[in-house]
Design brief:
Number of strands: 8
Strand content: 15-25%
CATH superfamily: P-loop containing nucleotide triphosphate hydrolases
Strand order of the largest sheet: 3-4-2-5-1-6-7-8
Structural class: alpha/beta
Distance between the termini: 12 Å
Number of helices: 11
Order of helices and strands: EHEHHEEHHEHEHEHEHHH
CATH architecture: 3-Layer(aba) Sandwich
Number of domains: 1
CATH class: Alpha Beta
């Protein structure tokens, strides 16, 4: 039975999709079966894994809104054991369509229950908002991984995310817990990066991953080739950091 982990932060550009793709790749490299659910209508995770889905093609939208069985359109990636439930632009309308639906917060949970026994981990790449799609992700998950970039205003909005998580724990999903905060885009030459690191550790004692993802060109380049760091630049510091993160998660989740 898969452990379900949402990768969530309502701020954009913090490394959610990069983390989802590369964590999935390294969990797979360590012998786990992984499904990545792309819940963002920009479909960056889908594209970054080389899965090309046209707007008319079946995707996660059809599972959420039309009750289609996702088994038919889960795609295999180029890494054995790593699958993706893809997104397309049509997902942008799902938030509005879900509003009037019965059990609207549990639509994704119901979808994932149909495939959960096929995987060790299901990772959900959440959209950069705290809307109904993110609520669905958190209602379906046991754990939340929060990427935080080592930049000014890094902690802005985290309080709101924590409140949302507490609200969901109080009502929709009492089993939801924060797995940890992951620092991304770290530059050891930059004093601000160190300040953010210290601030996050002070605010989230015992909840910050030892793995810290460095700022590197190859991290941004790999998705444009439809590849993970494991395939594109496996000897880089960033690749080693994601491998360490996967090892940490296997130990604690």
């Amino acid at each position: 039975m898969a452990r379900i982990i949402s990768i969530c932060n309502q701020k954009g550009g913090v490394g959610k999709t990069t983390t989802a793709i590369n964590l999935g790749a390294y969990l797979t490299a360590l012998g786990k079966y992984v499904l990545l659910v792309d819940l963002d209508s920009q479909a960056n995770a889908t594209i970054g894994l080389g899965a090309h889905v046209g707007d008319g093609d079946m995707n996660v939208y059809h599972a959420l809104v039309d009750d289609q069985n996702p088994q038919g359109f889960i795609k295999k990636t180029s890494l054995f054991g790593f699958d993706i439930l893809p997104a397309a632009q049509s997902l942008a309308g799902a938030s509005i369509e879900l509003v009037s639906m019965e059990n609207r917060e549990f639509r994704l949970k119901r979808v994932l229950d149909t495939v959960r026994t096929n995987y060790d981990y299901i990772l959900i790449d959440c959209p950069p908002s705290l809307g109904l799609l993110t609520v669905n992700a958190l209602a379906a998950s046991e754990k939340v991984l929060i990427p935080v970039q080592c930049e000014y205003f890094a902690l802005e909005g985290l309080g709101q995310l924590m409140k949302t998580i507490e609200l969901i724990r109080g009502g929709l999903n009492p089993d939801l817990h924060v797995l940890g905060v992951l620092l991304t885009m770290y530059d050891k030459r930059n004093q601000l990066s160190q300040q953010v690191l210290n601030e996050v550790m002070k605010n989230f004692p015992g909840r910050v991953f030892q793995s810290v993802i460095p700022r590197m060109v190859s991290v941004a380049e790999a998705p444009s080739f439809g590849k993970t760091l494991l395939q594109f630049d496996p000897d880089s510091k960033a690749a080693r950091a994601y491998r360490q993160l996967a090892e940490e998660i296997i130990r604690i989740a």
